[in-house]
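**Backbone description:**
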Amino acid sequence: MDKSDAIEALHALAQETRLEVFRLLVKHGADGMAAGDIAEALGVRQNTMSANLAVLARAGMIRSAREGRVIRYFAEFDGMRALLAFLMEDCCGGRPELCKPVLDEIACAC
């Protein structure tokens, strides 16, 4: 990930509804969620949700798959990993032991 991609990803996540969408999709993991279900769960109008989903998709934070007439969305974990790697690229001045608490905090315990 380069600086431009990181800025786009951070911009996409720096809005309340989009951040809530991303976190909701993370919770649903490999099952993802249909666009209408996301809108309903967050109490957002579908046209507004559509615009927010497009921003997140362009930033590489989510992906979609068509299932008949339904579009299902998924958190893009590779995109989030790339963003976190970019942010922590020069972590702790080359002393990885100083980064361990941060890495432990974000490691999945599932």
